[in-house]
UniProtKB/TrEMBL annotation:
The keyword Cytoplasm does not apply. One of its GO terms (molecular function) is DNA-directed DNA polymerase activity. The keyword Transferase applies. It comes from Limnohabitans lacus. It holds the Pfam family DNA_pol3_chi. Keywords: Nucleotidyltransferase, Transferase. This is DNA polymerase III subunit chi. It is an enzyme of class 2 (transferase). Its EC number is 2.7.7.7.
């Protein structure tokens, strides 16, 4: 059964996603990131500028298949494109289709009202399906 985690109270969602991707990449995990086209474009740019000393190789669904397979991080609006990944990170408002194919799903929730409201809907969906959810309150962890 997919392990589902909610990382909530992220003050800067994209910067937190970059840090999370750096950590997962260091563990040699293959990660898919789903969200809106706009959010994925912003994340793509953020990954290039995230750190002067860390490079996080990544690809997008529009890149050649060889490049997608060679990189540990794949950004796509369609979760099915990320089906060969272990971890799925959701930056979208909806429950990702086929999330149950992944070993782990991470929901990153910002501090704004819209982000909280849509996260509550996803939380209810997962619990109604019988998933036990793990939560990480980033405000208590000192994440900025």
């Amino acid at each position: 059964m997919t392990r589902i985690e909610f990382h909530f109270n992220a003050p800067e969602r994209l910067q937190y996603a970059c840090r999370l991707l750096r950590k997962a990449s260091a563990q040699n995990l293959r990660i898919g990131v789903v969200g809106s086209a706009a959010a994925l474009r912003q994340l793509d740019a953020a990954l290039w500028n995230f750190s002067a000393v860390d490079f996080l190789p990544h690809s997008t669904a529009s890149d050649a298949i060889d490049l997608q397979q060679a990189t540990g991080i794949l950004l796509s609006e369609d979760p099915a494109v990320c089906a060969d990944r272990q971890v799925l990170i959701n930056l979208g408002d909806e429950v990702p289709d086929g999330f149950d194919r992944f070993e782990r799903l991470i929901e990153i929730v910002a501090v704004d009202d819209h982000g909280r409201m849509t996260a509550r809907q996803r939380w209810k969906h997962y619990t109604a399906q019988g998933y036990e959810l793990k939560q990480h309150d980033l405000s208590k962890l000192g994440v900025s």
